Amino acid sequence: MLITFTEGYYKIRGNDVNVAGIGFELVEDYKTDKNGVGYITVDGSATPGFPERNIRIRCAQGAYTVMGVTDQTTVPEGMSMLTALKTKNKANATVTDFTQTKISDATIAQETDEQIIERTRMRFEILTEMTKAVKSGDVRAMIVTGPPGVGKSFGVEAVLEKDDLFNTLGERKPKYEIVKGAMSAIGLYSKLYEFSDSKSIIVFDDCDSILLDDVSLNILKAALDTSKKRTISWNTDSRVLRSEGVPNKFDFKGGAVFITNLKFENVRSKKLQDHLAALESRCHYIDLKMDTDREKVLRIEQIVKDGMLNDYDLTDEAKTEVVEFIKENRAHMRELSLRTVLKVADLRKSFPSNWVNMCKVTVMRGVA
């Protein structure tokens, strides 16, 4: 069973690393050590960047979210919520089902840098146009996949903000919402109802927990369906829905965008493959095709050249140093992304004489 922490810490090389928002496979429920410090035991091997063994995440009781939770879970007396859910969902998918193989640069050796840059730019332009089509109602739904931190969410959000400008200026409620992080099935159902009107859009950004829960998946399939009428139902009684005035059935007329780091065709779990194929058949699927480190580095170079660091008080030489540092050390970066560029730029600006050592400690791994 997959859980994420709202706040939790794990010590790496003597430093406390906050694991908030990172998914782990649960091993053992919340306990306290002899000093009264609370912790949860998780499987570090299922999450990239952590030891390949069971590890303890220090946290406060309740400082975690169980992915796929609904209000239909019954907790027997004397049993914790985590244990109840683990028992209930033991046959469901787990975080290890999402494991995907890293792609070697050799797979694109035949392409020049210029060809890769142009290919990537073209796909992001298509993402922009497709987002406009979802907003206008010409396209009902799409899935966008690509590695973390390359600008997937930014591209979609920029289009929606610009298109919804009049609502913002008029202090009216926006016709779209971007939902991030873990979400329960009943939360998904309620959110879809809230944005069920025509021309409304709901964007699920990095909400892969939905894929771990059968109820959530069926709700999402109904929302993304290509049929003329998309009716979504909640077939069990819920005090939560009653209190919020949400009906147990409604027609979803809005648009939906699902942004994920998963490349659907590479997911190993047969069960998940079937579910993802059903989702893919219901909507447009945009793969940004940035699977190798080379493609990510070229994306970084291009975006910096386009002005990503213009707001920083850095010389052109310093900006070049930032990019070159990432290129030279890309194999050791915790994440090869645009977010890493900003982190390195922050350090280059704040610690001009010691920024390299600062980077080795904060944004790199496996470096002495």
Concise overview:
By secondary structure, the protein is α/β, with parallel strands linked by helices.
Task: Describe this structure as you would to a colleague.
The protein has 12 helices and 14 strands. It is α/β, with parallel strands linked by helices. The chain has 3 domains: 2-98, no CATH class; 117-287, Rossmann fold, CATH 3.40.50; 307-362. It has a 5-stranded antiparallel sheet, covered by helices on one side. A hairpin with a 5-residue loop joins β4 and β5. The longest helix has 24 residues, at 113-136. The protein is globular. The model is unreliable at 68-81 and 85-92 (pLDDT under 50).
User: Which superfamily, in CATH terms, is the homologous superfamily of the largest domain?
Assistant: P-loop containing nucleotide triphosphate hydrolases
Please give the number of β-strands: 14
The protein's oligomeric status is single chain
Report the helical percentage: 25-40%
Work out the radius of gyration: 22 Å
Task: Give a short account of the largest sheet.
Answer: 5 strands, antiparallel
User: Residue ranges: pLDDT <50 for 5 or more in a row?
Assistant: 68-81, 85-92
